[in-house]
Amino acid sequence: MPIERFVLIDDSPDDNWFNHRALKQAGFKGEVITFDWAPEALLWLLEDQISVPTCVLLDLNMPMLSGPDLVAELSKAL
Question: How much is the pTM?
Answer without folding.
Answer: 0.91
